[in-house]
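pasting for the record
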Amino acid sequence: MFEVPNLADYNIMATLPVMVLALSTCILLLVDLFIPTERKHLTALLAAIALGVTLVLAVLPLFDLVEYGDGPLAFEGTFVADEFSNMVNAAVLITALLGVMVAPNYLERSALQRGEYYSLLLLTTVGVMFMGAAGDLVVVFISLELLSIPLYILSGFRRGSAASEESAMKYFLLGAFSSSFLVYGIALIYGATGTTNLQAIWQTIDALAGQETSARYLLMAGGSMVLVGLGFKVAAVPFHMWTPDVYQGAPTSVVAYMSVAAKIGGFAGLLRVLVAGMPNFVLDGAEVAAWQDTVWILAALTMILGNIIAIVQSDLKRLLAYSSIAHAGYILIALAAGGRAGYGDDAARAALIYLMAYVFTNFGAFAVVIAVEGNDPTHTGLGRVRGLGKTHPMLALAMTVFMLSLVGIPLTAGFIGKWFVFQVAVAAGLTPLAIIGVITSLISAFYYLRVVWLMYFEEGEGEASMPRTLAWAIGISALGTLLFGVLPYLLSDMAREVSLAFGGG
């Protein structure tokens, strides 16, 4: 007889942080109806309070100060509240808080003061949090849609702007196309294993090891399609086509948040599906997962193409778009390392450390773009930073920190992220891929340091608008970039207990 689970079986308390934010978002949607247009900063304040409370709730279990619920599993194993999800939550909530900080002034000067902006941003954050805790392929799909659909809307938030509307349409069409790949991939994996639960998939694959069955071909096709669907979200080559146009056309405050949050969600999903659910899917005689070579190639192509094309960019937003593509390649190195038995947990830790460092570095760079573009969203050419070192020395100093961190210079968070990624790659036998990563990092120094050169050694007006909340966001980003670079154990300690592989490792 079918047994209906009771409330205790769902272990709802384990989902407390994400449920608090989801409920707060629903309340914010209603409250915003009663806030007049000229006082939408109150909506931003309420959104920041909701994010702050959720961040506290998410950070407490990260440092073993509290444990919610009875164990990590909730909703019949479809939700996993473990150390991995805790760190994903911390990263995306910090990103969202910074996103709310830079938004009010930007929306005001762009005549976009609409309170739904903050609700959409919070909905995307909820989607990323669910993705990080996904224990089932169905949850992966639902989470992807929850984090993506608000971003499609936010990309076209500047109504009346052809560039913004075009970016939203491109993002939506390609996003819907990639989602179809993900759904079909999930269906094929279900057909091969008879389940969508990630732990059950791992167990089934383990039982099928060495057997010549049609399931292996379904798994191969299904895993490939899931990689395509989530590869689009992280802007991996060749699924990156949308990135430069969307980044240039969308409101910069949206791009600053999207460039980080989407990557956190996409890589959380990839790590859950491939490193947790399918690390033991190997072909005859192979020592590594069947998907490792594909990820290896994607990582190499993403790093090479992203860094080389960034060299010729003359627009700050497009330069940072191709930079974002390149950094997806570095994180893919960690994902590839997770394909070797015994390295799944190390790979997950390296990827999370990189993403946490990326939060402060990349968001800070886009926050500076918000400052220099002024009231005209099309004024994002490299010439906008020319002479900034003389006219706004502190802003130029912060941008220098971000550029050096994106290169991977020591004493910055970017260096620590790359150190852990390259380290796990070498340990997992992917030394050639790590070498490609080092070489492309050297190539990237050209276009990152060109920004620094323009700020300090070129003559120009270097105009910038620095409202208080934007200045705070840039300062916090710079502080985080330097703090994690000088004290790397802060990151390594946070990720120390992360365990993703069901079979250990």
